[in-house]
Each structure stands twice: as structure tokens, then as C-alpha cells.
Amino acid sequence: MRILAEDHKKVTDLFDEFERMKENEETDDEAKQVLVETACAELTIHAQVEEEIFYPAARDAIEDMDLLDEAEVEHASARQLITELAAMQPGDDLYDAKFTVLGEYVKHHIQEEEKELFPKIKKSELDLEELGREISERKLELRDEFGVSGEDEDDDDPDSGAGAKRRVH
């Protein structure tokens, strides 16, 4: 679950950076768009590995189906906002608001996973090392499939890496 927690930190940092950009009147639209596209790509990949690998394993390992059902509904809400953002430009009405709301949804989702779901999984008999390997391998496949720069890139610079600017959502 360490790899999922690392993803959580990465996207939380991107949402926080966006808030700083909104306050800075000198931020150009291209920088804002690159950050939004990067965050949306990271979220898309993260959600897909959770839905394909983590949630099915969790369903077999714990009894709290409501928590997992809510997580999947939260993913659907985030996916809808990501789709809407992909069709927009930074100067459009509601662009900043949609990304801000996406950040609020995602931060709530992260808190529930880390405070409620992860502890239940840790207490289960699930092989966390094997699960982590599966998630890592699938993330690499998806990063390649979506043309997203590798995880070893400089995470503090959303403009780093050849794939960072490519629309992936």
C-alpha cells in the first residue's frame, strides 16, 4: 500500500501547487494546464490500478463492502470531472473551480482510504508485498500506454519529462 500512499502524496502536492498558482497572478495558463493534465493523468492511472487490482483484492480480504462501494463511486465522480477538464482550457469558466472541487473530492477519498481502508487491509491476511508488485507492474504498463513520463522524473516539476504535456484523459 506504500505505492498507493506515494500516489496520494504526489497528487495532493499537485493540488496544493494549483492553489498556489491561482493566488499568483503571474502564473500563465500553459503552466496551469500542464499541472492539471499531469494531475489528471496521475489520478487516472492510480484509479485504474485501484479498480483493477487493489479493490478486488480488498473485497476478498475485508468485510466492509460499503467502504469499497463508496470508494468506487468517488472514483466515478472524479473521472467525470477529469473528463470535463480534458475538454476545457485554463481560461474557460469554471476551469479552476472544477479542478479545485476535484482536489477536494480526491483529498476526502485519500483520507478515507488511509484512515479506514488501509488499516483494515493491513490487519487482513492479504499478501501486501505481492499486491504491491502487481500494482507497480500495472502502473508501469499504464504509464507507457498513456505516454506519461516515468515515476523517476522530477516530481516537483510537472513540466519535466517528454510525456508530461501530452493529454491523457
TrEMBL record:
Residues 3-121 form the Hemerythrin-like domain. Pfam families: Hemerythrin. Transmembrane segments: none annotated. Signal peptide: none annotated. Residues 142-169 are annotated as: Disordered. InterPro entries: Hemerythrin-like. PANTHER family: HHE DOMAIN PROTEIN (AFU_ORTHOLOGUE AFUA_4G00730). This is Hemerythrin.
